[in-house]
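Q: I'm building a small set of examples for a reading group on sequence design. Run inverse folding on the following structure and report the sequence directly after it, with nothing in between.
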């Protein structure tokens, strides 16, 4: 009998995260004076125990037992073989996916929300603020804060706030407070509303609001939390790839191709980074982060220093960026509507270790519907971007007659995104592809910023 699902016992869960900073070179984040920032400059925003993780170059970092206990609510997540999809495509490829939709909020996001809430609790923080695009991250942090008795305030991008009202209900069920961004609660939000009263919002704006709400609390008991982009977020997500490696070893498999959708980079990095470690050490493997064609940071934007938020509150980060004031089109994959990409993922792109791809909205939904009608699970709009590339690779294997092993990350379910599916079935979705003129215009915002060095990481 063919194996459809590979599971680990709770005792087999990884007890350490993999830190890719031990194996690649990075340009440092810069302050307003253009000089590298020290940990103390981040202290008003994040607790020091998380800042220490952000800058650590230790390859393996222990997962606290209190974090393990909460992760055990849904982890280890299953590794599933998409047998019915393989049959529908007639491909010789064997397709596997890590099903991260089994978490309480329905996505991979709590893998970092739980440790972030834990470290804030240990540091004595009483209230956390954050932003959310599609609502997956806001739901995850609200859930995590409820596990550790911390208040949670979420600024949700306006277009997603309107498209996905039940995400707000989920956040409130776990005790979080959710407001649409831009809001009138912060200076950053009021400034944007004064200039663009009908704006759909963006992750960059919501980040500015959440950071401002945290640092303006005079009690010192509030900190900000980010669901992607930063090094410690990528670190926490590597539990996905580390579990996957154990599961594939159990059935004698190793992937030829790794695929994950990428907005800020955390879902992709969670699965891919443990395999990037193998590739750096000599394994032949193709690794594809997949972004929306409407927000092509890795495939069309340059590698530059830019702010992580619209108002310019964050340090300058080395990343592929469309410019921190860029307003992405209102596609339904809200979690992929971000102007930049994680510095670690960007560094790997610049070195050619990973190869980015871009997918438009309608072929992504076409792939998502095929998957729902074969494997049964309805994917989140973000996940459909990875699926489109999975199917492309499976068809390519068929043409070449190769038995490739494809592994991808199922970042979340789409049960709260059915309005988008309705529009797809009614042929009301449009493919937004940025013109070269729009991209050139967006680049002007970082023209005078310092330029990152072209670094080459150690290849053994």
């Amino acid at each position: 009998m063919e194996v459809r699902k590979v599971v680990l016992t709770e005792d087999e869960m990884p007890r350490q995260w993999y830190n890719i900073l031990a194996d690649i070179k990075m340009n440092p984040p810069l302050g307003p004076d253009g000089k590298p920032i020290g940990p103390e400059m981040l202290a008003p925003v994040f607790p020091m125990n998380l800042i220490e993780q952000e800058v650590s170059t230790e390859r393996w970092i222990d997962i606290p037992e209190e974090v393990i206990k909460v992760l055990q609510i849904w982890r280890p997540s299953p590794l599933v073989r998409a047998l019915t999809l393989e049959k529908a495509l007639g491909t010789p490829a064997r397709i596997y996916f890590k099903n991260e939709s089994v978490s309480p909020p329905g996505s991979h996001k709590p893998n970092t929300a739980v440790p972030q809430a834990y470290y804030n609790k240990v540091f004595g923080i009483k209230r956390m603020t954050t932003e959310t695009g599609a609502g997956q991250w806001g739901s995850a942090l609200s859930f995590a804060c409820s596990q550790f008795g911390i208040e949670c305030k979420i600024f949700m991008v306006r277009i997603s706030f309107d498209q996905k009202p039940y995400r707000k209900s989920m956040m409130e069920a776990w005790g979080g407070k959710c407001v649409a961004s831009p809001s009138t609660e912060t200076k950053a939000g009021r400034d944007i509303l004064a200039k663009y009263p009908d704006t759909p919002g963006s992750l960059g704006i919501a980040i500015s609001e959440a950071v401002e709400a945290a640092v303006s609390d005079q009690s010192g008991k509030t900190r900000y939390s980010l669901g992607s982009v930063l090094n410690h977020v990528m670190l926490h997500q590597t539990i996905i790839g580390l579990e996957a490696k154990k599961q594939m070893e159990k059935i004698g498999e190793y992937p030829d191709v790794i695929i994950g959708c990428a907005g800020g980079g955390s879902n992709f990095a969670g699965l891919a980074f443990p395999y990037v470690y193998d590739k750096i050490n000599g394994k032949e493997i193709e690794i594809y982060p997949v972004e929306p064609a409407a927000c092509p940071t890795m495939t069309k934007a340059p590698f530059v220093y830019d702010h992580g938020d619209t108002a310019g509150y964050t340090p300058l980060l080395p990343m592929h960026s469309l410019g921190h004031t860029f307003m992405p089109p209102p596609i339904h994959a809200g979690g992929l509507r971000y102007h930049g990409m994680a510095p670690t993922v960007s560094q790997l792109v610049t070195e050619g270790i990973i190869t980015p791809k871009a997918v438009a909205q309608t072929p992504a939904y076409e792939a998502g519907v095929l998957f729902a009608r074969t494997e049964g699970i309805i994917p989140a709009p973000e996940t459909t971007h990875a699926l489109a590339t999975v199917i492309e690779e499976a068809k390519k294997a068929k043409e070449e007659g190769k038995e490739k092993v494809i592994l991808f990350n199922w970042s979340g379910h789409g049960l709260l995104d059915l309005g988008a599916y309705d529009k797809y079935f009614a042929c009301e979705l449009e493919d937004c592809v940025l013109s070269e003129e729009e991209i050139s215009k967006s680049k002007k915002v970082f023209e005078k910023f310092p330029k990152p060095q072209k670094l080459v990481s150690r290849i053994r």
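The first helix runs from residue 48 to 55.
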